[in-house]
Every structure is written in structure tokens, then in C-alpha cells.
Please model this.
Amino acid sequence: MLTRRTFVAASLLATASPAFLPASSDPVAILTAIYTRVAKGKGDSGGAFVIENKAAKTKYLSRALVALWARADAHTPKGDVGPVDFDPVTNSQEPDVKSFKVDAEKMEADKATIAVTITGHRNDRKPADQIVRYDFVREANSWRIDDIKGSSDGEAWSIRKMLADSLKT
Model:
């Protein structure tokens, strides 16, 4: 039965700004939460928490990307570093995040591309290397990261491509 109270609550949720909705309902909110955590303190803790273990990957990444990553990890010889040997969230070996800006470049019903521009304390990076792009897909009413892309010294990289390429060797 729909009471006046539940109707009002549902109406408020439907019209609330994305900042007040659960993070899984909005890719911009998800990345804002991730980078807020990354930029805390000296901004040097990085974003490894997004990919540090299977539970973290399952929380943030699409099922397809989690499965691809698992195949790549299984293909990596024991004792070797996996195909992703840096922090893709900060696009670095040594995280340095002072501030960030999140921009929705493309938003559709079931996929989105969001760009995050990172400003560090050192400012020793090429402008293109300060932008990390995220491809999101909607799975079971939640947004998940399906790829992370950036560039290092002007050379483009993609997590999905790195993982796929590692399976070819």
C-alpha cells in the first residue's frame, strides 16, 4: 500500500541530486568518492584500494573486467608482477593527488565515459597524463567501471588492452 509518507519519500529520492543517492547510481559520484579518498592527507596513498583484491574489484569493476583480470592474473607466472604494474587511478607509480575534477563526457542509459583531471603537488607531468578516463557500464542497476584509460609520457594505455595483451604472451 502506498502511504503518503512513502510517496513523499519516493518523490524526494527521484528528484534528489545525485550526490544524495547511493554511489552505485551515478558514475560521477563513484569517481568523486574514489578521488576524495585518494586526495586525502598528502594525496600519496593512491587508488590501489579499487583493484587490490577480488572483493575490491567486484565492488568497483564490471563482471567482464573482473573476469578478464582474473584470467590475466592466472596467466602471469608465479613471482612475476601482473600486467598492471602501476596505480591506474592516479596514473602513476608514486601517487600525487592534490585536487581533481570529474567531468561526465558521455552519459547514456547503460554506459558512460567520465574523465578525471588530476592536479598533483609536484606538477611534473604532461597535461595529457593528468587525465584518466573511465568507461562505465550499468549492471544490475549499478554502475561499474569497464575500462580505465590514460596516457604515460604521451603513450595511450587501457587496462582492458593491457590485460588482453598479457594473455597473448
Notes: The beta strands are 99-107, 111-119, 131-139, 142-152, 155-158. Confidence is low (pLDDT under 50) at residues 1-23.
